[in-house]
Specification:
With 106 residues, the protein is an all-beta fold. 0% of the residues lie in helices and 58% in strands. The strands form two sheets. Strands 1, 3, 6, 7 and 9 form a five-stranded antiparallel β-sheet that branches. A four-stranded antiparallel β-sheet has the order 2-8-4-5, with no helix packed on it.
């Protein structure tokens, strides 16, 4: 199986946004790409909520990371199990998130 785009979002500024929820009976390996389409530096957060839990500090994989204007970043692979939720937060509406991944039946 090949990795493919499984989700894309452009969140509203200063709002925790769900990017991807791992389906039932599935394990997923997800790599998140973050693109800053604006000209100024923005900050972002990446969280994984186990079993769809409410957002807390312990779920943060990346916290307030700066991203220069007109640039991008990507994460290491994130292993997710059924009902885990990948979430993001950013300081402006200029960030675009693309989740590439591989889903396998658990």
């Amino acid at each position: 199986a090949l990795e493919r785009v499984i989700a894309q979002v452009t969140p509203v500024a200063e709002t925790v946004t769900d990017v991807y929820t791992c389906p039932a009976d599935t394990l997923a390996t997800v790599r998140l790409f973050v693109s800053n389409t604006g000209s100024s530096t923005q900050t972002y957060r990446i969280m994984v909520a186990p079993l769809g839990a409410a957002d807390t500090l312990v779920h943060r994989l990346v916290s307030d990371e700066p991203l220069a204007g007109n640039s991008s970043a990507r994460t290491v692979p994130i292993i997710m199990k059924a009902t885990d939720i990948l979430r993001v937060y950013n300081t402006s509406g200029n960030l675009v998130y693309t989740a590439n991944g591989l889903e396998e039946t658990a």
